[in-house]
Amino acid sequence: MSLLAERLGWAQKGKQILTDVSGEITPGTLLAIIGPNGAGKSSLLHLLAGGERPDSGTVSLDGQLLSSYSAASLARRRAVLTQEQSLLFPFAVRDVVAMGSLLAVNDEDIEHCLRYFSAAELIDRQYLSLSGGERQRVQIARVLLQLLPSLKAGDPAYLFLDEPLNALDLNHQFALMALLESLRDRGFAIACVIHDLVLARRFADQVWVLSNGRLVAKGGAAEVINECLLDEVFMLPEQPRRVMASLLDCAGA
Amino acid sequence: MRYTANSKMMPSAITETRHPNAAYRVLWLLMACLLAALMMAAFVGAARVEWQHWQWRAWQNPEAAILWHIRLPRLCLAAIVGAGLGASGAAMQGLFRNPLADPGLLGIANGAALAVAISLIAIPSSWGLLGLYSISIAAFCGGLICCIVIFLFARRSGGGVAALLLAGLAINALCGAAIGFLTYLSDDQQLRSLSFWTMGSLGGALWTQIAVCCSVLIPALLLLTRSARQLDVLQLGDRSAEYLGIDPRQLQRRTVILAALIVGSCVAVSGVIGFVGLLVPHLLRMLIGPQHRWLLPGSALLGALLLLAADTLARTVVAPAELPVGVITSLLGAPYFLYLLLSQGRRL
Question: Above pLDDT 70, what percent of chain A?
Answer without folding.
Answer: 100
